[in-house]
Amino acid sequence: MKTIDLRSDTVTHPTPAMWKAMALAEVGDDVLGDDPTVQRLEALAAERLGFEAGLFVASGTMGNLVALLTHCGRGDEVILGDKSHTIVYEQGGMAGMGGIMPHTLLNQPDGTLRLEEIEGAIRGDNIHFPRTRLICLENTHNNCHGVPLTAAYTAQVVALARKHGLGVHIDGARIFNAAAALEVDVRELTRGVDSVTFCLSKGLCAPVGSVLCGSEAFIAEARRNRKVLGGGMRQVGILAAAGIVALEEMTLRLDADHACAQCLAEGLAAIPGIEVAPSYTNMIYFGLADSVKMTAYEVSARLRERGVLVLPRDARNFRAVTHYWIDADAVDGALEAVRAVVCG
Ligand code: TLP
User: Fold this and answer.
1) 288 - beta bridge partners?
2) CATH number of the domain that 263 lies in?
3) Of 18, 83, 217, 313, which is least packed with CB atoms within 10 Å of its CB?
4) Ligand 1: centre distance to CA 197 (Å)
5) 8 Å CB contact between 71 and 102
6) Residue 3 within a domain
7) Residue 59: CB within 6 Å of ligand 1?
8) What stretch of H or E contains 5?
9) CB of 202 within 8 A of CB of 173?
């Protein structure tokens, strides 16, 4: 039985072109600055996103943490969304590792933070207050159904940040999905911001890694912070080689994942007992109607028996994510399994 794994785009295995690139990668000691493949990836990533420099990191979580540690000192405050990955799924690393204080604002359903609420959250110069240093956005916004944030919105946040002397960081784990969905060059979505982390190991299929991009000076400091977290890797060009393929080839095909997500969302919506939220990129959030007496955990266990993996989010709701290894047949297979389990 072939498994149809829709739990996340993080489950993607390397493509044949990546295996080949990894086998042939030229490597060196990257902590000593000697790995030509890592240097190529970092330069390519910086160029693609419109920054001076890039830093290969082990994961999206590490990229975000390194960015926050580089922007902020102990006691400084960061404004970010209450549904952001950084606040929900990164162990409070900014506080634990950096003594940085999160100031959360409500994420709107479209993934944004209200501009007036951002402005209201910025601290004045007062001996009692922490110093506001940074605003963090997430694009696409995972917990807001994978919605992309527009270039126009980002520009407004950047203008606000400039007015108050703050930095802007984007958790762009899936920023190439956002660019594909909005039909813009990814640079439109990063224009004016100080740093971006994007992931190679999600929809772009590389086995490991993310890249943090910023100015030369910012990345030099970020390199120190990566080292103290144990993220200085040696002959890591083996992994960077897959990242280069991810950037050069896999960023060009994300529309196909979004089209599959639409098919899956439409098919799910047609199944009695299933309620589907709007889907914008490669994520489908769906739930069980009251008429279904099983919990989402029971449904997902029964789907697993049929070789279909989805992520239950709570007792009534699921997430499914499309990616390179999910084609039209896999979508049909998943729909057939959901129909069989939910409708009996
Ligand atoms: N997201 C994972 C889980 O952690 C939830 C997933 O399956 O979606 N930013 C965003 C927006 C993310 O979605 C993720 C991973 C990360 C950062 C962290 O990346 P990694 O897993 O590489 O540390």
Assistant:
1) 274
2) 3.90.1150.10
3) 217
4) 11
5) no
6) no
7) yes
8) strand 4-5
9) yes
Q: In terms of domains, do 58 and 186 share one?
A: yes
% of the chain residues with pLDDT over 70: 100
Q: What DSSP designation does 31 have?
A: G
Instruction: For residues 184 and 294, state if they share a domain.
Output: no
Domain-ending residue, one of 251, 266, 295: 251
CATH number for 28: 3.40.640.10
CA distance 125 to 176: 38
Residue 138 Cβ < 6 Å to ligand 1: yes
Position 12 scores a pLDDT of: 97
Is residue 9 situated within a structural domain?
A: no
d(CA 1, CA 329): 14
Segment 243-274, tens digit of pLDDT: 999 999 999 999 999 999 999 999 999 999 99
- What span, in angstroms and rounded, lies between the C-alpha atoms of 283 and 261? 7
pLDDT of res. 258? 98
Do 233 and 279 lie in a common domain?
no
- State pLDDT tens for residues 135-188: 999 999 999 999 999 999 999 999 999 999 999 999 999 999 999 999 999 999
| Ligand 1 pocket member 142 (CB < 6 A) | yes
Same domain, 329 and 239: no
What letter would DSSP give residue 268?
H
Whether residue 60 has its Cβ less than 6 Å from ligand 1: yes
Taking each helix axis from N to C end, the angle separating 328-343 and 296-305, rounded to the nearest 10 degrees, works out to 120
Closest ligand 1 atom number to CA of residue 84: 11
**All residues at 6 or more sequence positions from 195 whose CB lies less than 8 Å from its CB, including other chains:** 51, 67, 70, 71, 167, 168, 169, 170, 212, 213, 214, 218, 222
Residue 165 burial by Cβ neighbours in a 10 Å radius (0-12, 13-18, 19+): exposed
Q: Is residue 6 part of a domain?
A: no
Q: Which two tokens stand for residue 186?
A: 């990814």
The residue count for the chain: 344
Domain range for 305: 253-343
- CA 116, 117, 118: angle at the middle one, nearest 5? 90
- Residue 1: the pLDDT is 77
| Element housing 262 (H / E) | helix 254-269
